[in-house]
Amino acid sequence: MINGFTIDLEDWFCSHNLNGNIKYEDWDKLPGRIIGPTMCILQLLSKYQTKATFFVLGWIADRYPDLIRTIVAEGHEIASHGYSHRLLTDMTREDFKDDLGKSVSAIYNSCRIKPKGFRAPAFTVVKSTLWALDVVKELGFVYDSSIYPTSVHPDYGIGDAPLSIFSPQKNLIEIPLSCASFGRRNIPCSGGAYLRFLPYPLYKKLVSNVINSGRNFIFYIHPWEIDTEMPQIKLPLLKHFRHYTNISSTLGKIERLLQDFEFTSLERILKENNRAIPELILTSSYE
């Protein structure tokens, strides 16, 4: 089973966890640190001859076009993470359409690629924002990778969404984030904080559970999650724990993951997926 390796390409101050402390309008005033950790990830991917999907924030593409071109030159897929990292739950349909369109333009201007895939900031394609999939399709995207089939997180998740790749509507494919399945309980394990929090042997068991069930494991990470020197902002205790825990061990865990499992880009997973992808329309029953 081949698995998906994805990077949400955003700088340390773009994270949803810091929204209450850092305003979007102030991003340009802060020291950018995106290049160092991204290059480190690229070197690791090259070492293991692995291609990945980079969900690029349009704001980053506008300011670091050389970095985007470097990613493309390494043979990785470029997808969209929106422009401003605003959550879909904080936007209207028109706000989102403008933001996503702006991201497409920024990415195209940086590397002459029109992205085929989209991932919402903080996975906020949720029950109340399923309208976003109409916009994603309208703007010509082939797939979305925003739905997390879990109910345990306060900010995201559709607990009864399918665990495997499916089509939520005609001419659009959904590549959901991965959950291990134990009976009726879904345990989120796609990456990010879940990778950082758990001992690697336990994390590996969760990944193996996904693969052994016949599903592609979909991994994600942010460059700031390997940046041991990023500025630390005073946060409420829970947010501080979620954001900064085990940063120093993340890179080593990613390398072990690349040693233990085979990964590629989401674009290639779709191309090599010979199974019929079921059409499981997300209707009002999810509302």
UniProtKB/TrEMBL annotation:
PROSITE patterns referenced in this protein's UniProt entry, alphabetically: NODB
GO biological process: carbohydrate metabolic process
InterPro entries: DUF3473, Glyco_hydro/deAcase_b/a-brl, NODB_dom, PuuE_HpPgdA-like, XrtA_polysacc_deacetyl
Gene3D superfamilies recorded: Glycoside hydrolase/deacetylase (3.20.20.370)
Listed GO MF terms: hydrolase activity, acting on carbon-nitrogen (but not peptide) bonds
Domain NodB homology: 21-287
CDD domains: CE4_PuuE_HpPgdA_like_2
NCBIfam families in alphabetical order: pepcterm_polyde
PANTHER family: POLYSACCHARIDE DEACETYLASE FAMILY PROTEIN (AFU_ORTHOLOGUE AFUA_6G05030)
Protein name from the UniProt record: Polysaccharide deacetylase family protein (PEP-CTERM system associated)
Organism: Pedobacter cryoconitis
